[in-house]
Design a protein that fits this description.
Blueprint lengths: L1 H6 L5 E2 L1 H13 L4 H14 L1 E2 L4 H9 L5 H12 L5 E2 L13 E2 L1 H7 L2
Parallel strand pairs: 1-2, 3-4
Helix pairs in contact: 2-3, 4-5
Length: 111
């Protein structure tokens, strides 16, 4: 999906903590430090990090979502004025005022 969106010149954003989450997943997948670093550098070339601050963290807390990390993702998407949130678990974003799609639905909706 990142490659397709980059090729189309879509503007891609991610929450700052997504970088740490991806690094953790890559570590668990037994990637070497050099492989992890290269993967993260590639990701940061393709997507921008949403500029968030304590106001956004407070907004996430105020949402009362069951999963605080999802609330942080929503707050980051809200801050960068995202058109859509793409996630594997759309049900976690049921309270989102921003449309939420799976990768498959996103690729179908935005060919």
């Amino acid at each position: 999906m990142l490659v397709l969106c980059t090729a189309r010149n879509d503007e891609l954003w991610m929450a700052w903590h997504t970088v740490a989450n991806v690094e953790y997943i890559l570590t668990r997948a037994k990637q070497t430090p050099a492989e992890r670093e290269q993967h993260l550098r590639n990701m940061l070339q393709q997507a921008r990090v949403s500029p968030t601050d304590e106001t956004d963290a407070r907004h996430a807390l105020d949402q009362g979502w069951r999963d605080f990390e999802d609330a942080l993702q929503f707050a980051a998407a809200r801050r960068c004025r995202a058109d859509v949130i793409v996630t594997r678990n759309t049900s976690d974003f049921a309270r989102s005022s921003i449309p939420v799609l799976t990768v498959q639905d996103f690729l179908a909706a935005y060919p």
